[in-house]
Amino acid sequence: MKMKKLISLGMAMVLSLGLVACSGGEDKEASTSSTSDKLEQVKESGKLVVGIYPDYPPFEFHSTANGSDEIAGVDKDLGEAIAKELGVEAEFKEITFDGLIGALKADKIDIILSGMSPTPERDKSVDFTDLYYTGKNIVAVKEGEEDKIKSVDELKNLKIAVQKGSIQEAYVTKLGCTSIKSLEAIPDVMTELKNGNVDAVVVNDTVGILNMQEMGGLVQANLELPNGDSEEGMAAAIKQDDNNKAFLEAVNKAVNNFKSNEFEKSLKENTDLATKENK
């Protein structure tokens, strides 16, 4: 009887030690996984998950040119170029523009590529690469009203439409505009203008001109926005984390390669494609 008790006690101790060892190993593995280098994580997963809101042609939009509804645009081309540089596949996840940073912080995506501009407020929560595009912001109005707005101060008392979460929304808010309508998609913003529900739209020049041509009846106002307010730069964004430094460096290298060698071709091709899609 005594021997049986000793054997039982010994087996219990062995099992207990085994469980502790397994538990310690799992905890260490989980800890390593949560703190491992982001670049290594992406390479191990075999994919780069890109957050994008495809309603901003020619940078991101839906296309049926290949017979099915697919995401197209400069930012898609850039995402694929970055993924290729990292040796992985690009996976695009559609998220509304104002939800992109939240998704990045929650690790639902690896990177944002959606015509996003660096701002002091965004710099608090994400890290940006070098700019791959710099454009201007313009004011769009109905045809025949090109000279209606004489100064930037006059914008304050007009009904203005902008894209929700955009740098243009921040600009008109800071300017002190009293009536701002923020909508998710640029085509919706332009439709509000065409239907006479707002007086003007503040928008990126490349995107705005393309949308005005497609919609018809809308033109650029003869109003220059002041320096500093008239430029809009676009960059890729990744989560702020000490473990993301190598990832940011690798992405930045790919961004600059794309800017030097592929950007102009991509912009032209996607501008032509977006124009055809809406004819």
UniProtKB/TrEMBL annotation:
Pfam families tied to this protein: SBP_bac_3 (PF00497)
Q: Which domain of life is it from?
A: Bacteria
Protein name in UniProt: ABC transporter, substrate-binding protein, family 3
Query: Any idea which UniProt keywords this protein has?
Result: Signal
**UniProt domain Solute-binding protein family 3/N-terminal: residue ranges:** 47-270
PROSITE patterns in the record: PROKAR_LIPOPROTEIN
Leader sequence range is: 1-21
Reply yes or no: does the keyword Signal apply.
yes
InterPro entries reported in the protein's UniProt record: Solute-binding_3/MltF_N (IPR001638)
